[in-house]
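Batch manifest line 261
LIGAND: zinc ion
JOB: complex structure
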Amino acid sequence: MKIFTMCMECQKELGHPSFEPIIADYYEEALAFIECTKGHKSAILLQSQKFEVLLESAANALIEGYTLEAASSLSSAYERFFEFAINVFCKKHDISKETLEETYKQVSKQSERQIGGFLFLHLLVFGNSYTLNKQIPERRNRVIHQGYIPTPDEVIKLGELIYQEILSISNLIKSNLASEMQQVISDTVQARNEKIPANMCRATSSGTMFFSLVREENKGNFQEALASYKEAREKLFGSVPYLRIFSKAVALYTNLRSPKQ
Ligand SMILES: [Zn+2]
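JOB STATUS: finished
ARTIFACT:
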């Protein structure tokens, strides 16, 4: 996975952004380690939940024509979303992280058990039953268990169903359990922060662009979210050569104004 960023150490020194574009890789830990041309080394910590990263991964794969990978990432995003919702519901009931982990590890390898856990916790928290979309398992099983390579349209249909499920439950959580959701995000940030080597400079990024829990409002459907993400991605990556030239001009100007002794 990739994130577009700039060096925060340069910004601290200059009092304004250096404008040097940095495209950094990140993986499971959602940490990107960067080094700018001035030699500042730092870590960028994403605050995105795993399902948000997987949704963005699906969007990238779909844009690039990898439909099987896109469907597979969508399917994983769907599963990890229920894990996130379970975390939020357990916060509401003051369940400690350790106790939840102890229980979760018994269901972690079977997504059907996790979805069952979600349904009963939803019932407990909201006092009403949540009806899952029945079309999702049929479509995802074909890809995941039968290696079926879907067309872009089939991925969009699966994406739409999964996106609607995630959007409606996350809107419900944001309206009713905002503080619990914030606590889950803080726990994620804290756990990632502990994985950065001591003394290394660090900055937190809001993370994914395709879907973001911390955004005021996400797009109403998968196709709109995909179109908007595609446009943002093209603008961002398209700006890289210009930002490189601009950042060199800024550095030159800064040096002329205050040459090093
Ligand atoms: Zn720097």
